[in-house]
Amino acid sequence: MAWQPTPYTVPLLVAAVASFAFAAYAVGNRSRGGHALLRSFVGVAGTAGVWSLAYAAQLSATSLDLTLFFNRFVWLGSAGLAVAWPAFVLSYVDRTAWLDRRRFALFWVVPVAFAVAVWTVGVDPLFYVDPALVDAGGFRVLEYAPTPALLGFVGYTYAVNLFTYAVLGYAAVSRDGVFRRQAAVLFVAGVAPLALGAAGIAGLVGPEDGVVDFTPIAFSGTSALLAWVVFRYRLLDVSPIARDAVFANLSDGVVVCDAHGRVVDNNDPAKALFPDAELGVHADEAFADVPSVADAVAEAASDDEFRVTVDGDGAPRFLTVDVHDITGPGTTRGGTVLLFRDVTERETLQRRYRALIEKSPNVIAVCGEDGLVRYVSPSIERLIGHRPNEIEGRPVIDLVHPEDRREAQQAFERAFEGAEPQSLTHRIACADGSWRRFETVIERLFADTREVVITATDVTDARRYEQRLQVLNRVLRHDLKNDTNVIGGYADLLRDHVDEEGDPYLDIIDRKVRTLTHLSDQAREIDVALHSDAGRTEIDLAELVDRLCESLESSFPEATVTVTIPDSAVVSADELLESAVRNVLENAVVHNDGDDPHVEATVVADGDRFRIDVADDGPGIPPVERTVFSEARETALEHASGLGLWLVHWIVTESGGDLEIDTREPTGTVVRMWLPRADSESG
């Protein structure tokens, strides 16, 4: 096989060797840089090497068949570079969204189609018309007339390359520092081969006869530029993607100072925190309000972290400052990187949390699985007289009354076994030797830790108050009723021993006895209502009101009771609702001062609820008693009806209903109770 020397063979071989070397270097350093950037760089270097080596072989061949054979590899390298180069540029500027299969098909479909056609149809007749070898001044080169397919493919590659040059040009203008220089060198390395190739096609360079493509020849020169940007500007180590994604877009503030303490770089969050930290300004001036930061830049200290407070629009902002030295060649300190993290929200929450804990009326403690107190709130000194440092480190069970320790220990152990809080009531020792009663809740602090938080509420006074109420309730319910019954019995005995003038006085005694007895019964019902665990049930108001009105007529024959009810009115209400309705009906008669009391009871539908109306013609309920259920406090009771209103209000409210009391004209009162329909009634 005969070969011919050409003046372009050596530059092409140099370009091929350099390209393959860059590809091998990139593969050997695949742990550096982004994956898309690395793969596309290998593609650019590899396809450029194939193009250069194949074109060197084509120019060195002396027969047309061999020339056309090697020309196939030339087009294979050209098509590959038409795919790899835009992928490299898009990766470099972090437009990786364009590298997905659908979008990137715009860049690889045409080159792949032409590469397949070259190897199946052949370059002759796909690209060339009447190809031949002609003398070009001592060596022979290919001459041909281009086909429309060739012109179309060349036009496509030029369009794609112009697009990538625009992208690189914008990157060179918009970026700064090493990244601007990277983009500028890559721009020149991309434009030079295209420009030189266009000059060769136009006949501005090269032999007069034949066609010589100077694009791969220019790779020998651009390989030097590529080496510069790879090794000098660390293309595979530092790219603008890293700065844009990690530096410029950080939510934390970053300031870079050189070895002389001058600010050489910063990002927008840092500018917002320190407006004086402009490029070129010394750290002493940039951080005049926070001298500790300027000192960290001046001192050649190891990496450190500390906190500072700066003024942010009139409100203090809390920052953590991470200081990192930049080491230059050898052991030279090349500068300092300051990372400012705004922890204002976290610091504020922590301060609020500490304030809540410290001012809490409860004792809050944290214990480990060993039972030792690891933390206790300062409120312990106010509540039981112990200082926190006296309790921390001690077994928590030591503070519990000996009679309550077994139950407390069991609750403590159960808290570690499950996620449910454990509650108990026990006594805790005070510093003065006395005991106070606490209601305590023990629960896991976090699911992944072996600690519990203990919240203890002092209920000593509340329990004492409850005991007193129980005694008063017993006196009101039991002792008072017994005594009134005795008084009533003796009053009946006196009727046989007094004359007619004494009967009115005995009648007064009899009425007061009945009032006190009624008051005692209401107290009993209220006690049941307050301490009952009764739930809601379905109640037919029509049947309930009708039955209670019949009972009312039997108990008070002098009263006239009118009832208006539907066939059915089922509501969902508290099981004690009957007691509330009975109280309202009895009050309408008992507190009526007329000789013939009239009571009207009505049940009607009202939207998604039923309403009970009880109207009377009595003197009316005093305003102070009508408002007892709307006041968040006790009010003076004119007579026993006020106590009954409390009972009615509590039961109706527990039933999910509403209560309203109005004056009736010309005289009397109307009590309205709204209760929710039962689910079956709603359906």
Automatic annotation (TrEMBL):
<dbReference type="Pfam" id="PF02518">
    <property type="entry name" value="HATPase_c"/>
</dbReference>
<keyword id="KW-0597">Phosphoprotein</keyword>
<dbReference type="InterPro" id="IPR000700">
    <property type="entry name" value="PAS-assoc_C"/>
</dbReference>
<dbReference type="InterPro" id="IPR035965">
    <property type="entry name" value="PAS-like_dom_sf"/>
</dbReference>
<dbReference type="InterPro" id="IPR003661">
    <property type="entry name" value="HisK_dim/P_dom"/>
</dbReference>
<dbReference type="InterPro" id="IPR005467">
    <property type="entry name" value="His_kinase_dom"/>
</dbReference>
<dbReference type="GO" id="GO:0000155">
    <property type="term" value="F:phosphorelay sensor kinase activity"/>
</dbReference>
<dbReference type="InterPro" id="IPR013656">
    <property type="entry name" value="PAS_4"/>
</dbReference>
<feature type="transmembrane region" description="Helical">
    <location>
        <begin position="73"/>
        <end position="93"/>
    </location>
</feature>
<dbReference type="InterPro" id="IPR003594">
    <property type="entry name" value="HATPase_dom"/>
</dbReference>
<keyword id="KW-1133">Transmembrane helix</keyword>
<dbReference type="Pfam" id="PF16927">
    <property type="entry name" value="HisKA_7TM"/>
</dbReference>
<feature type="transmembrane region" description="Helical">
    <location>
        <begin position="185"/>
        <end position="205"/>
    </location>
</feature>
<keyword id="KW-0418">Kinase</keyword>
<dbReference type="InterPro" id="IPR004358">
    <property type="entry name" value="Sig_transdc_His_kin-like_C"/>
</dbReference>
<feature type="transmembrane region" description="Helical">
    <location>
        <begin position="149"/>
        <end position="173"/>
    </location>
</feature>
<keyword id="KW-0812">Transmembrane</keyword>
<feature type="domain" description="PAC">
    <location>
        <begin position="302"/>
        <end position="355"/>
    </location>
</feature>
<dbReference type="InterPro" id="IPR000014">
    <property type="entry name" value="PAS"/>
</dbReference>
<keyword id="KW-0808">Transferase</keyword>
<keyword id="KW-0472">Membrane</keyword>
<feature type="transmembrane region" description="Helical">
    <location>
        <begin position="6"/>
        <end position="28"/>
    </location>
</feature>
<feature type="domain" description="PAS">
    <location>
        <begin position="349"/>
        <end position="419"/>
    </location>
</feature>
<feature type="transmembrane region" description="Helical">
    <location>
        <begin position="105"/>
        <end position="129"/>
    </location>
</feature>
<protein>
    <recommendedName>
        <fullName>histidine kinase</fullName>
        <ecNumber>2.7.13.3</ecNumber>
    </recommendedName>
</protein>
<dbReference type="InterPro" id="IPR052162">
    <property type="entry name" value="Sensor_kinase/Photoreceptor"/>
</dbReference>
<dbReference type="InterPro" id="IPR031621">
    <property type="entry name" value="HisKA_7TM"/>
</dbReference>
<dbReference type="InterPro" id="IPR036097">
    <property type="entry name" value="HisK_dim/P_sf"/>
</dbReference>
<feature type="domain" description="Histidine kinase">
    <location>
        <begin position="475"/>
        <end position="679"/>
    </location>
</feature>
<dbReference type="InterPro" id="IPR036890">
    <property type="entry name" value="HATPase_C_sf"/>
</dbReference>
<dbReference type="Pfam" id="PF08448">
    <property type="entry name" value="PAS_4"/>
</dbReference>
<feature type="transmembrane region" description="Helical">
    <location>
        <begin position="40"/>
        <end position="61"/>
    </location>
</feature>
